[in-house]
Amino acid sequence: MKRILAVMALIVVAGAPALAAYPERPVRIIIGFPPGGAIDTIARLMGPPLAERLGQPVVIENKPGAGGVVAAQGGARADADGYTVLMGTMGNLSITPVLTKDLSYDMEKDFAPVTVVASSGFVLYVNPAFPARTVGELIAYAKANPGKVNFSSSGNGGLPHMAGELFNSATGLKLTHVPYKGSTPSVNDVIAGQVQMTFEATAIGLPFVQAGRLRVLATTGDQRLAVFPDAPTVAETLPGFSVTNWFGMVVPARTPQDRIDRLQKEIAVVLARPEIKERLDALGVAVVANPPAAAGRFMQEERARWAKVIRDANITAN
């Protein structure tokens, strides 16, 4: 009997690593926006080398709708096993949870942080035919032509929307918000002249600026961007104005911490690769890849910051 029990114990011990192996099947990354946007570009750049590191396919799944809410709902309902990752923007990870009431999920209770993948400069783009050449001229033109200047966004509650509303608040203007279902259609209508301007990520507008189909009026961070060195910041005209986008990853709450740590570790290794960093630098995207605890603190701080902006500016989701 002792020999039988000893053999059984060895079988259990030998089998334990196999049972605990992760991942054993494809990992799915859900994105709440259509293909072609900055977040989609970053995810698809990371996908192949991350799959190589994990030893399993990494599937990028676009689930656009309601400014990233549809994807977040799906992420919150997924099994907490490390096989479903929600990759979001500052908009749907930090702004939407405080801007939108009666969500079916709680960003802090239903999700666990993995990492802040990267941060990206934000830019005020205008149609090339728009008469204003500076932020000051834009403000003067909008005041002289009330109701004639619109700004597009990727959807209600997203960072492009909030940046525009913050601009309204800082200038006393009432630029009309025109929401779209994603960054690509939003930018396309600025290019077509249907809308005069938009606040968007560097990566999205850069190729159109290079092709002469968009013009950079200003950047929105605290410092000028290397990719647009001649473009002033909005803060040079409106002191204190600051908007920087970031992209983060979260998983369903109660996902085993060792799996979260493995994901973060492999993501950090992938983002440190010279060829990946070079591609991101060219898009105006800076790698962050911080540990889960630091990412969680940062996301909470961002939610608190934007809650104050929303409250002070009396901004609503609609």
TrEMBL record:
It comes from the Bacteria. InterPro entries: BUG (IPR005064), Bug_dom1 (IPR042100). Residues 1-20 form the signal peptide. Transmembrane segments: none annotated. Keywords: Receptor, Signal. The keyword Phosphoprotein does not apply. Pfam families: TctC (PF03401). Belongs to the UPF0065 (bug) family. This is Tripartite-type tricarboxylate transporter receptor subunit TctC.
